[in-house]
Amino acid sequence: MSNPIAGNPSDVGYHFDGRYFAGSSSITACIHYTDNEGDTWTSASGAPTATVVRGFFEYGGGLYAYTSTAGIYRTVDGNSWTAVNNGLSNLNVIGMASSGPYFVAATIGGGVFRTINAASWTQATGIAGGDLNGENVWRMGGSLFYSAQGGAEYMSSDYGQTWTAWTQPAFFGLGMVEVKRFGNSLYMETRHFAGGLRDSLYRSTNEGASWTNITGNLNAADINGSGVLEHDGYVFIGYNIGSPGLGIYRYSLSTDVDDVLTRSMPVVFPIPAEDVINITLPYAEGTTNYTLLDAAGRSVMSGRLIPGSSQLDLAALAPGCYFLRCEVPALAPVRVVRR
After folding, report:
1. To the nearest whole percent, how much of the chain has pLDDT over 90?
2. Please, what's the b/e burial string for 77-95 (b: 16 or more CB within 10 A of its CB; e: otherwise)?
3. From CA 45, how far away is CA 43, in angstroms rounded?
4. Where are the domains of the chain?
């Protein structure tokens, strides 16, 4: 596999709409894609230039790339990208997350901004002026969480509009390095001091109500992680260049019945819903066709859902209880309620 830009390894990557995308730091196009497993790469049309692509975020059928100086770009077809920065007064974006119909962007210098469709952004309130340099933003259950570079942390229970101070759990240690959502599980890498800076890995299957330390045999290697990712049902972590340990390690997920059932249940939020409902599918199950059935078993809606978060518009449906059924056998039917 070749680098998209010779001599310039990519910083981040993502698989979307049948293609692999790579984000880079470059004076030219900063997003490339491949259709042949990395043998050749093509500059993405409309991609940001002369910046750093810090990450990708998939939501509502679109893929978003957030950058260090150019704000946020979006593609819905995998071919062309456009900037979606209306109202985003700080273009130094460090992370993105979703909650219900909204998604948010954490910035370095402006705190948190939120939007419902990326047409325009609004700056959130409640974050102190000294805490506007963001470090992480993530969702647990029905709430959003934000950590600042100075160590302060905040929580929002209204889809990111207002924020209040939050006290982190003790296991965070010196602070959280990153948090990732794969399917219905959260994975968190935290940093502490024990004869040197070391990282630990934790997993939660109940939206952060409890966490299990899964660092395991990585303890002895004095791990300093370089990123957590998921592929084909497995979680991987790589050691960064400053770590005494080397290489990439894979964590084999539990195969007990409870874990399989948890990973195979779509997450529906909110319940009950008004006009729009958010559905999260496990990444391991891929894209699937769905049918929404009413109480009499009649089909009232159908379409396709992608791994990760999608939205369904329920405005045309009568209030009541419905069942979402996916064609993928591993995905159990789930109840949808419109108020």
Report:
1. 34
2. eeeebeebbeebebbbbbb
3. 6
4. 12-251, 265-338
Stretch 14-38: mean pLDDT: 87
Q: Which two tokens stand for residue 186?
A: 């959260």
> Rounded to the nearest 5°, which phi and psi values hold at 258?
-60, -40
When pLDDT is averaged across residues 195-221 and rounded to a whole number, the result is: 77
Counting Cα atoms < 13 Å in the Cβ hemisphere of 306 gives 15
CB atoms within 10 A of CB 19: 16
pLDDT per residue as tens digits for the range 259-313: 443 446 788 888 788 888 988 887 666 778 888 888 767 788 888 888 778 889 8
* pLDDT score at 146: 96
Q: Which of 40, 53, 51, 47 lies closest to 12 in space, CA to CA?
A: 53
Find the helix or strand (DSSP H, E) in which 260 lies. helix 257-263
CATH of region 265-338: 2.60.40.3080
Fold for domain 12-251? Answer: Methylamine Dehydrogenase; Chain H (2.130.10)
Task: Give the whole-angstrom CA distance, residue 298 versus residue 148.
Answer: 49
List the beta bridge partners of residue 105.
96, 113
Which two tokens mark 217?
A: 């045999």
Q: pLDDT digits over 81-121, tens only?
A: 999 999 999 999 999 998 888 999 999 999 999 998 899 99
List, in order, residues 6 or more apart from 7 with CB less than 8 Å away: none
Peptide bond into 329 cis (omega under 30): no
> Could you tell me the CA-to-CA distances from 158 to 4, 162, 268, 321 in Å, in that order?
40, 7, 17, 24
User: Residue holding tokens 């894609």?
Assistant: 33
CA distances from 274 to 171, 266, 318, 337 (A): 37, 19, 11, 9
